[in-house]
What does this fold into?
Amino acid sequence: MPRITLPGDQWADLIDPSDLRSGDIKAYRRSMPVGGVMTYGTLDGMRDVLLRRLITNWSVELPIPRDNPGDDEQPGSLDLLPIPAYRALIDALDPYMDVFNPDPDPKPSPESAGTSADKTSSSATS
It folds into this structure.
């Protein structure tokens, strides 16, 4: 379980990236925008969904985020963090994003490269 150092001698424990479950990626994907329009607000929402699932304990004097997610009426624990602490948590997300968004295979398939597996040309068959 990785322990993330936060400013002010505080810390947050996150689940290990290898312990992610299918529900974690599903929740993250449900938070993605439909139609591909990405705003800072959308990105913040996606990160918060993930952080609420990842943080298992912390030294911050607030409930852990999954226990206090907040809503339109009340800010959640992540909303009440000082910006440097929130940024430290965001910076710790890279290994999790690598699990959710693995590098694509660098070799294109014949279909995506615009070629076909059938190498015969129309002039060779005429």
